[in-house]
């Protein structure tokens, strides 16, 4: 690094001159490494961060363990700060609190007495009020630390030594997990069941080449202290195989029926690290905002015996739908991102499950070897002294004589013994300190027995150090002993399927009418709700009227059909029919935002019925600006929860029509101004989901597309105006043209509200802006030419207008009567001939349009 210095005159002070850029880079690098290595990330060997390691070692050092009474937390915090951790007291106390929380740690390492916080997010009491000591599990982390099993380094002021890592007699990193955010990296290792992790480690010791599938036979997945249900195993496998993955975790909730016939949802477990009080508050806010409907009351009945949150439901609510909404919109279902990042040799690494276990087993191999070496050394030193004592006993008279005549004190006595009899200094010192009372025969026998026993241990320890298999066998044996002592049952269930709860078997298959209003309210009703009426009737009220709201979409489908939702922003979502709220004839339904994760200002403007077995065809969309876009339906086989982008919309445009087509269908596109064009859909090439589309019809100024239809043999074209007049016309009246032309005249008088392609056996459902619905047989409507003015199909009140027309299957529940015919304003033959000639001239002038 480039640097220079200058001397400040008269002061003797040296001023160092350095480049600012290099200084900042160097300082930030030092800071980053300090955070990564000394603060935020755990060590792969003991699974602890430095602050946790220092807390536990301080407790161990001060005998603050389960065999001794609790001590004030302030006492421990002060000792840690003073000796090992030169940071704020809050950093130490907060870390100690987490080690004591049974809802944060799968196996708490601190035994706390007092208020250490709660799952509701309540803060712990100040450290002057609480007491703590090591838990029994923590003792296992420090077992044999005095036997030189781990390295020690200087503390911050080099006045003491602290362990670089703890012996960790169980795989704490996986058992208790760890979370931390460093500079440029983060770790999130979920907790696991101790019995499973130990079984996995033992299996790896027995078969070092064991693959991931073999390991997962023992380690099923994370085991959170708060229980819950993991939805599916794919996220677990990804995390274990690559070091990264996402796990969907649900709380445990049961649907209970009360004596009055109503249902309630009882939540007994919540996802890991979720604040229960905040979750309940969020549910209440969603109910208040009507994003979740069907909840009448919410109570937290949790106590010292366990968690119990009761969600009371309204009488008409579907409990399974409400539960799914809770999963969708609240933290009752949460995503746990897994990042298996830890320090390996001081270097942060993302590791697989097998790598983590391998590093732990290798570390325990070293711990056992160092412990054995320590015991061997101590035993050899003791045996050496005993051998000297045993030899001195045999010549005790000579030894005593030499000591008495050495002419000095103990140093001179030691020197005399060493010089006359060949003892070394440790042996001579032990002989000088040997009590005369132990010269009795029985005491001498004890010395010999102890020596024989030590020789046996020394031989065994030497054999262990010379045999790798013996070392691994000891690791395995001690792990299994810990499993027997501390192992418990799994708390977190792993479900075999992911996603929404499959309740299709509980839902009957029935045809329903699905409606979606302009304001986004959706519902389904039994098809029997709408009785067939005579053409020209007043209809029945199909929903409770809401100011400025009206029905925009309506179709007939089954409760087990897939329903596609296309939004004004060109996204597609998908639900099952039974997942849609079932309302009464006059209810307004539930807002679509309660069922779909819509983005800001996104509005659903089209619903489509997609049979589950449909695996071919195109999703064809036509916009108000006359653009057509076709995408193979396979592109929507797997729609994510947050939807898929189906079309890239031009600014100011919106969808007018969207259906599933076969690939070679003929389409009829109609405009509000009374124009229409017939062309084969193959003229619009298929394209990917993100394409813009091509022109379908050339629009006049201020005109826009109001709908389209798929033509089929024997059908007729039904056109209805805003004022309720309509007619059926033969398909042959609309000549086949190339895509992109101006089209031909479809209706002369009145603004067109919609078109449908009908068979004689069909029924028609019309909906007005005021929410009035009427149903009639298609054959009751006369077939007229394109130039006919039609008949009255729905009487419209002043200020009202027709907004939706839908086709459905024929119903014979009531007979129909034709109303009194209205005078028709048919054109003369000369006028028809003139219009036909004009259209023929237009057809000659138009050429196929390929522009985007």
For the record, what is the CATH homologous superfamily label of the largest domain? DNA gyrase/topoisomerase IV, subunit A, C-terminal
Query: Sheet with the most strands?
Result: 4 strands, mixed
Q: What's the alpha carbon Rg, rounded to whole Å?
A: 42 Å
- Proportion of residues in helical segments: 25-40%
| CATH architecture designation of the largest domain | 6 Propeller
Low-confidence stretches: 498-503, 534-541, 544-548, 814-820
Shape: elongated
End-to-end C-alpha gap: 59 Å
Descriptive tags:
single chain, 852 residues, 4 domains, Topoisomerase, domain 3, 4-stranded antiparallel beta sheet, elongated, 4-stranded mixed beta sheet, 18 helices, alpha+beta, Gyrase A, domain 2
Description:
The strands form 13 sheets. A 4-stranded mixed β-sheet has the order 16-11-10-19. A 4-stranded antiparallel β-sheet has the order 12-13-15-14, covered by helices on one side. It starts with a strand and ends in a 7-residue tail after the last helix. With 852 residues, the chain is an alpha+beta fold. It is elongated. The chain folds into 4 domains: 48-167, Topoisomerase II, domain 5, CATH 3.90.199.10; 252-331, Gyrase A, domain 2 (2-Layer Sandwich); 357-486, Topoisomerase, domain 3 (Orthogonal Bundle), CATH 1.10.268; 504-813 and 827-845, Neuraminidase, CATH 2.120.10.
What's this, in brief?
By secondary structure, the protein is of the alpha+beta class. It is built from 18 helices and 43 strands.
């Amino acid at each position: 690094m480039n640097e220079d210095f200058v001397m400040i005159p008269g002061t003797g002070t040296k001023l160092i001159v350095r480049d600012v850029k290099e200084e900042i880079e160097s300082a930030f690098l030092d800071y980053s490494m300090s955070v990564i290595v000394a603060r935020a990330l755990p060590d792969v060997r003991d699974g602890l961060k430095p602050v946790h390691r220092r807390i536990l070692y301080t407790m161990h050092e001060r005998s603050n363990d389960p065999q001794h009474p609790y001590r004030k937390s302030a006492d421990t915090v002060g000792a840690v700060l003073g000796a090992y951790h030169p940071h704020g007291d809050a950093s130490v106390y907060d870390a100690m609190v987490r080690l004591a929380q049974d809802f944060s740690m799968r196996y708490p390492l601190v035994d706390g007495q007092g208020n250490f916080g709660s799952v509701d997010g309540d803060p712990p009491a100040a450290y002057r009020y609480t007491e703590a000591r090591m838990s029994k599990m923590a003792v296992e982390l420090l077992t044999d630390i005095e036997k030189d099993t781990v390295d020690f380094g200087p503390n911050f002021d080099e006045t003491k030594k602290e362990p670089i890592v703890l012996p960790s007699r169980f795989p704490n990193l996986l058992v208790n997990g760890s979370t931390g955010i460093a500079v440029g990296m983060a770790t999130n290792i979920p907790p696991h069941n101790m019995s499973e992790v130990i079984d996995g480690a033992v299996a790896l010791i027995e078969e070092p080449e064991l693959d991931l599938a073999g390991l997962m036979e023992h380690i099923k997945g994370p085991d959170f202290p708060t229980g819950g249900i993991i939805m599916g195993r794919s996220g677990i496998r990804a995390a274990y195989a690559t070091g990264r993955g996402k796990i969907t975790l649900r709380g445990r909730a049961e649907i209970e029926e009360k004596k009055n016939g109503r249902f309630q949802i009882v939540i007994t477990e919540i996802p890991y690290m979720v604040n229960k009080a905040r979750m309940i508050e969020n549910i209440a806010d969603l109910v208040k905002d009507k994003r979740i409907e069907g909840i009448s009351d919410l109570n937290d009945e949790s106590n010292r015996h366990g968690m119990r949150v009761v969600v009371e439901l309204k009488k008409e609510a579907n409990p399974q739908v409400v539960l799914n909404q809770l999963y969708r919109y609240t933290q009752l279902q949460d995503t746990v991102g897994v990042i298996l990042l830890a320090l390996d040799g001081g270097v942060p690494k993302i590791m697989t499950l097998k790598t983590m276990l391998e590093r732990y087993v290798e570390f325990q191999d070293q711990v056992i070897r160092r412990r054995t070496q320590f015991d061997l050394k101590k035993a050899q030193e003791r045996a050496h002294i005993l051998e000297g004592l045993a030899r001195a006993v045999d010549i005790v008279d000579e030894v005593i004589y030499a000591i008495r005549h050495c002419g000095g004190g103990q140093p001179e006595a030691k020197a005399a013994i060493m010089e006359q009899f060949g003892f070394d200094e440790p042996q001579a010192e032990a002989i000088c300190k040997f009590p005369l009372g132990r010269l009795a025969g029985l005491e001498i026998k004890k010395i010999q027995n102890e020596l024989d026993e030590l020789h046996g241990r020394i031989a065994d320890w030497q054999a262990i150090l010379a045999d790798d298999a013996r070392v691994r066998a000891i690791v395995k044996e001690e792990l299994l002993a810990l499993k027997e002592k501390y192992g418990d049952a799994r708390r977190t269930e792993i479900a075999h399927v992911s996603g929404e709860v499959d309740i299709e078997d509980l839902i009957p298959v029935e045809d329903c009418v699905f409606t979606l209003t302009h304001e986004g309210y959706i519902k389904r009703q039994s098809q029997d709700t709408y009785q067939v009426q005579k053409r020209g009737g007043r209809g029945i009220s199909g929903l409770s009227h809401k100011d400025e709201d009206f029905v925009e979409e309506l179709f007939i489908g089954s409760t087990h059909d897939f329903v596609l939702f296309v939004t004004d922003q060109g996204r597609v979502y998908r639900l099952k029919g039974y997942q849609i709220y079932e309302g009464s004839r006059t209810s307004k339904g539930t807002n679509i935002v309660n069922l779909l994760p819509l983005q800001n200002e996104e509005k659903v403007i089209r619903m489509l019925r997609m049979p589950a077995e449909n695996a071919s065809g195109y999703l064809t969309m036509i916009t108000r600006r006359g653009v057509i876009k076709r995408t193979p339906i396979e592109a929507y086989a797997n729609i994510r929860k947050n939807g898929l982008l189906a079309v890239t919309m031009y600014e100011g445009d919106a969808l007018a029509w969207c259906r599933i087509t076969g690939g070679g269908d003929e389409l009829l596109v109609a405009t509000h101004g009374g124009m229409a064009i017939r062309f084969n859909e193959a003229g619009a090439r298929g394209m990917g989901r993100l394409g813009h589309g091509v022109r379908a019809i050339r629009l006049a100024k201020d005109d826009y597309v109001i709908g389209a239809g798929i033509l089929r043999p024997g059908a007729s074209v039904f056109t209805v105006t805003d004022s309720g007049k309509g007619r059926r016309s033969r398909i042959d009246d609309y000549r086949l043209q190339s895509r992109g032309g101006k089209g031909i005249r479809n209706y002369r008088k009145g603004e067109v509200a919609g078109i449908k392609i009908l068979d004689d056996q069909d029924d028609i459902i019309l909906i007005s802006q005021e929410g009035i619905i009427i149903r009639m047989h298609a054959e009751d409507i006369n077939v007229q030419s394109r130039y006919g003015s039609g008949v009255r199909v729905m009487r419209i009140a002043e200020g009202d207008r027709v907004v939706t027309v839908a086709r459905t299957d024929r119903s014979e529940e009531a007979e129909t009567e034709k109303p009194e015919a209205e005078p028709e304003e048919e054109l003369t033959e000369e006028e028809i001939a003139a219009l036909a000639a004009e259209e023929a001239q237009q057809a000659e002038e138009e050429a196929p349009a390929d522009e985007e």
